[in-house]
């Protein structure tokens, strides 16, 4: 035997050969090392089995279990030689995967304890065989090279996608973790299985098309492969096909949906392959088309055996539930899970999830069934917590579409499924697996006195918000900034979409009123003068009562009585304050004219004239200012004396100004124009074209006296028909 810690695919063994016992060296994996043993295939127990059939099944299953136990007891090298080179073993395992009872099959309920024990023993032996076949390293001494292991299982068809799907259906319940490790190791060591999985997804979509065709339902939208020919014969529908065809179709649908769900539940990495083929949209369209038709056929058709009808209804309901769960698994692992884990491009995953929900809106039946099992409002609430900047209008539209779907199918939403209002935007929940810190940023204490931003930055944030929301107070905006970690964009978004926390909503909704604290404010006063409150129009007083009312005279009398007595001198009694007699009031007789003079402010100035008049330039030193001043004064006197200036003088002044302007700029005569141009057929110059255009544009200044403009104006007023 080869030395230890060498891969099995590199080991060599020496064995005797022939009657003479000559030794020969062979690779550890060689067909001659296979044991000659015939593995019997699996035969299921019939539904209505007789005692001899039960005895035959027990004996047959016992042989099969003993063979598998013998196989599992082989050493590592012998086991792989038997697995790779024994075709009867592969037929035995394949027969069990094909014919073993599933969860809804009647054979899954054993008729006797002996059958149940034997079925359980055989089930475990088959599972352990596949588990050992999917393990490339059993110990430090017994292992295969990963690359060679992947090649062996792929080239010898030890595993393929249909086998993996059957393994998930048969052994997924209770062994999901082992199956996940097993399938993950197969796909890791042999990536070629991913390409096979892509082809399998295409086959599954063809299964949907086949069911639609068998039910007489034409593919619509994305499932339409080719237009229906007018000469084609009409297919039988679920109501008109034979009973056996309907049973086969329901079993086919149930088995397909159960298998896909089990595979995606155990191996979530395959969800991306399904999504790359648009599987989710096809599934929703298929559900919307097929399920109502099948339910109607099972419910309304006449069955001789009521038990068969109940079994078909159970399988149709099971298929519906599995299809909805498949859709949820695809959304969970391709959209929701990356958001919870704080992956990069979280906004992209959220947008993809909303896009899928939007595509579900036309599929009313599918949408209502999905919302019944997995409320869409919960997923949207999760998105709003993870991404506070999500479009509130879009989410509201989706929730209204879900309500419309429930109304369209004529069903009432179960209690406890009422859509909640949009929750306040908060950071990602701390329970998310590693995603909270990445999505919401580092946590900062908000309740303390320490502000994480500087004063200048805080003023900048406040001014940025108040530019858009000038009616909000500074204190309220400060509280919002503290609540949302000083993120001005988040504050503006939550205020505009009414998604503030309850505390902030209360402070925002408490408005002041101009009538607060007045005499009729019952919210701040315990007693109100009800005599001044009446309902409707107040009854007016009669003319006699109004004339007899002398109250205003009494009020005027009290006012004039204060002016009757004038006291010049008041004797102040000892011990009384002068304030009681008004002696501290302002004395109106005091002369305060010179109180504002600055005494001693100009003591350093020796010339007393500086205090009386400002300094002026002597007339000898002036340079013509007096003459100009005299001229201005005389002109002002002349202008004030004239009522209307002389028109001749005004014309002379205008002519003088015009001459001065022409003298400065020079006289420029109008440029010559040439609108005649050359004779016809010889072409015209650019100057001729420009002159003609100028003449056309300005011809209204000439002899027509603005007739064209006024005619257009008259026509525009509607005075004549145009």
UniProtKB/TrEMBL annotation:
CDD domains: CUE_ASCC2. Coiled coil: none annotated. Residues 20-32, 649-658, 689-699 have a biased composition (Basic and acidic residues). InterPro entries: ASCC2, ASCC2_CUE, CUE, UBA-like_sf. Residues 1-32, 410-433, 621-722 are annotated as: Disordered. GO terms for biological process: regulation of DNA-templated transcription. SUPFAM superfamilies: UBA-like. One of its GO terms (molecular function) is ubiquitin binding. Residues 457-500 form the CUE domain. Residues 630-640 have a biased composition (Acidic residues). Gene3D superfamilies: DNA helicase RuvA subunit, C-terminal domain. PANTHER family: ACTIVATING SIGNAL COINTEGRATOR 1 COMPLEX SUBUNIT 2 (PTHR21494:SF0), ACTIVATING SIGNAL COINTEGRATOR 1 COMPLEX SUBUNIT 2 ASC-1 COMPLEX SUBUNIT P100 (PTHR21494). This is Activating signal cointegrator 1 complex subunit 2. The lineage of its organism: Eukaryota, Metazoa, Chordata, Craniata, Vertebrata. The gene is ASCC2.
């Amino acid at each position: 035997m080869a030395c230890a810690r060498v891969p099995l695919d590199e080991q060599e063994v020496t064995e005797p050969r022939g009657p003479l016992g000559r030794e020969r060296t062979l690779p550890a994996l060689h067909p001659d090392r296979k044991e000659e043993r015939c593995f019997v295939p699996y035969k299921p127990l019939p539904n209505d089995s007789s005692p001899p059939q039960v005895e035959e099944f027990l004996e047959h299953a016992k042989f099969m279990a003993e063979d598998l136990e013998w196989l599992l007891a082989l050493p590592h090298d012998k086991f792989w030689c038997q697995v790779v080179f024994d075709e009867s073993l592969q037929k035995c395992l394949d027969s069990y995967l094909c014919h073993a009872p599933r969860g809804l099959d009647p054979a899954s309920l054993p008729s006797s304890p002996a059958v149940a024990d034997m079925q359980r023993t055989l089930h475990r032996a088959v599972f352990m065989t596949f588990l050992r076949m999917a393990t490339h390293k059993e110990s430090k001494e017994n292992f295969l090279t990963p690359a060679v292991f992947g090649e062996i299982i792929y080239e010898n068809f030890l595993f393929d996608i249909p086998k993996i799907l059957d393994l998930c259906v048969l052994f997924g319940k209770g062994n999901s973790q082992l199956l996940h490790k097993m399938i993950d190791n197969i796909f890791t060591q042999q990536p070629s299985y991913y390409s096979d999985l892509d082809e399998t997804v295409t086959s599954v979509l063809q299964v949907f098309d086949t069911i639609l065709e068998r039910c007489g339902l034409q593919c619509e939208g994305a499932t339409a492969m080719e237009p229906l020919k007018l000469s084609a014969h009409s297919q039988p529908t679920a109501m008109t096909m034979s009973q056996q065809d309907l049973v086969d179709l329901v079993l086919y649908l149930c088995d397909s949906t159960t298998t896909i769900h089990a595979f995606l539940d155990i191996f979530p990495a395959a969800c991306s392959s399904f999504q790359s083929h648009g599987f989710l949209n096809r599934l929703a369209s298929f559900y919307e088309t097929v399920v109502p038709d099948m339910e109607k056929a099972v419910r309304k058709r006449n069955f001789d055996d009521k038990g068969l009808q109940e079994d078909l209804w159970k399988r149709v309901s099971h298929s519906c539930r599995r299809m909805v769960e498949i859709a949820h698994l695809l959304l969970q692992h391709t959209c929701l899970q990356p958001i919870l884990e704080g992956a990069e491009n979280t906004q992209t995953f959220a947008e993809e999830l909303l896009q899928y929900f939007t595509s579900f809106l036309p599929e009313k039946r599918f949408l209502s069934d999905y919302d019944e099992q997995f409320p869409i409002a919960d997923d949207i609430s999760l998105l709003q917590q993870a991404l506070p900047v999500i479009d509130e209008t879009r989410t509201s539209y989706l929730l209204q579409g879900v309500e419309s779907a429930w109304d369209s199918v004529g069903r009432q939403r179960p209690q406890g499924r009422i859509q909640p209002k949009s929750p306040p935007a908060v950071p990602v929940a701390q329970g998310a697996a590693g995603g909270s810190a990445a999505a919401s940023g580092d946590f900062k204490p908000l309740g303390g006195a320490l502000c994480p931003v500087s004063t200048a930055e805080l003023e900048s944030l406040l001014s940025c918000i108040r530019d858009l929301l000038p009616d909000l107070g500074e204190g309220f905006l400060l509280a919002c900034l503290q609540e949302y970690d000083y993120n001005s964009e988040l504050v503006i978004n939550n205020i505009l979409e009414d998604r503030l926390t309850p505390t902030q909503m209360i402070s925002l909704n408490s408005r002041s009123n101009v009538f607060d604290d007045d005499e009729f404010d019952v919210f701040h006063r315990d007693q109100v003068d009800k005599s001044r409150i009446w309902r409707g129009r107040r009854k007016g007083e009669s003319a006699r009562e109004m004339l007899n009312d002398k109250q205003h005279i009494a009020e005027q009398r009290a006012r004039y009585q204060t002016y009757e007595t004038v006291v010049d001198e008041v004797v102040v009694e000892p011990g009384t304050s002068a304030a009681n007699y008004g002696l501290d009031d302002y004395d109106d007789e005091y002369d305060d004219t010179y109180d504002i003079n600055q005494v001693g402010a100009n003591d350093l100035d020796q010339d007393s004239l500086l205090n009386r008049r400002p300094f002026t330039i002597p007339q000898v030193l002036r340079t013509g200012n007096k003459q100009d001043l005299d001229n201005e004064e005389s002109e002002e006197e002349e202008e004030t004396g004239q009522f209307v200036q002389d028109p001749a003088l005004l014309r002379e002044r205008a002519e003088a100004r015009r001459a001065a302007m022409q003298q400065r700029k020079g006289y420029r005569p109008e440029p010559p124009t040439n609108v005649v141009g050359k004779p016809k057929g010889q072409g015209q110059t650019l100057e001729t074209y420009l002159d003609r255009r100028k003449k056309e544009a300005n011809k209204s200044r000439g002899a027509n006296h603005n007739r064209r403009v006024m005619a257009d104006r008259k026509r525009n007023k509607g005075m004549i028909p145009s």
